[in-house]
Structure formats: C-alpha cells, structure tokens
Design brief:
340 residues; Leucine-rich repeat, LRR (right-handed beta-alpha superhelix); mainly beta
Length: 340
C-alpha cells in the first residue's frame, strides 16, 4: 500500500509480505517519509537505505535482523525507529547512537539486559523510549540526559527498585512499569509534576508514598494486582483522575479518598474483598465503567442507582440474588453486561 501525490510516494506499507530482503524498488522511492516493513523475514538492512534521505519513520519490528549497516546512521531526518522483536546485538549500538534525530525508539522484546550508555549519551531528542519485555533490572545513570523524554515503557522487565533516575526527568508524562517486581515507590516521585499516566500493575507494592499527590496532573493510575490494603489520604487532592485500577488488591473497603475523585470515568475494583460501597460512592457521577466483579457483595449496591452516566457494570461472581432496584426518576442507567 502506498500513498502520495503527483507520482511521489511518501508512505509505503510492505508489512506481512514474507519479505526476506528489502526490495530494491523501495529504496528507489527517494521521497518516502514513512515505511512499514514489520512482520517479515528480513535479515539485513542494505547499504542503499542511505538514499532514503527524507525518511522520518521506519518500522522493522518482528523480522530476523542480524546486522544494521552503518548507513542507517546517516538518515538525518529519521525520527521514529521500531526494532522490536529482533535481538539487539552489540554491533548495532554505534549505529543506533549515531541517529541523533531520533524522537521515538522502540526496542520491545529485544533480549537486552541493560540499556547501552551510548544511546543515553548521544540521543538527546528522545521523547518516547520503549523497552518493555526485556531483562532490565536498572537504568544507567546517563538516562538523566534524556531531558525531553515524555513516554517511557518498561513493562515486563525485572525491576525490583523504582529507578531513582526517573525522578529527575521532569517532562515524563507516561511511565509504564507493569509486571515488574517493585516493592515500593520513592518519595521523590512527587517531583514528576507533569506525570499523567502511571502504570504499576502486577508488582509487589504494599504502600504508596504521600508525595504522589504532588503529581497533580495524574489522570490514569493502574495499581491492580499489588498488595495494597489502603491508599494515602493525601491522594484525594488528585482532581484530574479519570481511570483507576485497583483490582486484585486486598482492600476490603472502598478507600474513602476515592470518592473525592469525581472526574472518574473508569474504575476497576474486581477481586478486592468488597462487601459494600460507601455512601459517598454516589458522588462518582461521571463513572461510565465500573467493575465490581469477584467480590463478596450479597446485595445490590443502591449507590449505583444514582450513577446516571454508567454504561457498563460488572457484578459477576458476587453473591447477589434477585432484587428490586429502586432507581430514582430520571437516573436509571442502562448498563451493558460484561462477559463472565
């Protein structure tokens, strides 16, 4: 698939074509700005890649790359590069670190055990760095050079300690540390005042720092499947909250502060040991999605009847029998059942 004007091709999609090499015809399209070559069987990038001088985005994920030619480093306009699902080799590092124009670098599932310091030292324009699905246990101290970094994806690694270097990167908007081995978060996390989305599901957290309330732009917080019994009261001041995941934590009660997050639209409380909802739960009038499945509720929570914006409600795997639900006039929600 190609897109262009007046015989000039700017976009080319050659993904999923069983390609063993990059066809010479592609390398002759000198106006190309975005090329998709993912999900093929390409083993080597030819030297003629250097002639694609206008290319800005290149997807080479899920191939069989064993070599990166030096000429790849001469693509001075390249801003986005995806090499995920290819094993990173030491010989690649000088090539990657020479692409100084990169703003987005995705290296998901590339079998790396540490981030090469050369990348942190030389790629100063990175705004997105994707490193999920690797074997990382720590970050190099040189990561502090990534002052423009906005999105950092570290899901499914081996972090036992929250990387303290991240607390210096004040422009971070998204941090994904799902499925690691974290047991605590540092107080310094409060310095990330631009943080909007924070994912730390499926770790080993037993508590949260009070300073998290200083991240007052937080709108998405996923704490699912940790070991949290409660949340710090100070978090009640986070007025921008729209999506919160608390499923799989032994809460037993809805945290009182949660009912102050009146902007909430999606709330996950599956398997949290709940037997009832607080009266103040009715304040969450903007809720559209509510998961209360796999709890111990024996009666229908009447607070739900006032949530007039609710679209999806999950109550499966509780102990609720048939009840007559007294919806006040004009407030009846129309929830769609979730699959069991």
């Amino acid at each position: 698939m190609t897109h262009g004007t007046s015989g000039r091709t700017f976009f080319l999609d050659a993904a999923n074509q069983n390609l063993a090499t990059i066809p010479p015809g592609i390398l002759e399209l000198r106006e190309l700005e975005e090329v998709h070559l993912e999900n093929n069987h390409i083993e080597e990038i030819p030297q003629d890649i250097q002639y694609l001088t206008n290319i800005k985005v290149l997807y080479l994920n899920n191939n069989r790359l064993s070599k990166l030619c030096l000429q790849l480093g001469r693509l001075s306009r390249l801003e986005g590069l995806d090499l995920s699902d290819n094993p990173i080799l030491p010989s690649w590092i000088p090539v990657l670190s020479s692409i100084r124009s990169l703003r987005q670098l995705r290296l998901y599932r590339t079998q790396i055990g540490e981030i090469p310091t050369e990348i942190c030292k030389h790629l100063h324009h990175l705004e997105l760095l994707g490193l999920s699905g690797n074997r990382l246990k720590s970050l190099p101290k040189e990561i502090v050079n990534q002052t423009k970094l906005r999105e950092l994806y570290l899901k499914q690694n081996q972090f036992e300690v929250f990387p303290p270097e991240l607390c210096v990167l004040r422009n971070l908007v998204i941090i994904d540390l799902d499925e690691n081995r974290l047991t605590a978060l540092p107080e310094e996390i409060g310095k990330l005042i631009r943080l909007q989305k924070f994912y730390v599901a499926r770790n080993r957290l037993q508590g949260l720092p009070e300073s998290l309330c200083q991240c007052d732009q937080l709108s998405v917080l996923d704490l699912s499947y940790n070991s949290l019994h409660s949340l710090p009261r100070s978090l009640g001041s986070l007025s921008e909250m729209e999506e919160v995941g608390l499923s799989g934590n032994p809460l037993e009660k809805v945290p009182r502060l949660l009912c102050k997050w009146t902007s909430l639209q999606l709330l996950y409380l599956c398997n949290t040991g709940l037997r009832s909802l607080r009266r103040s739960f009715r304040r969450l009038v903007n809720l559209r999605f509510l998961d209360l499945s796999q709890n111990h509720m024996q009666g229908f929570p009447v607070q739900i009847c006032t949530l007039k914006n609710l679209e999806i409600l999950a109550l499966d795997d509780n102990k609720i029998g048939k009840v007559l639900i007294p919806f006040p006039a004009g407030t009846r929600p129309s929830p769609r059942a979730l699959p069991a």
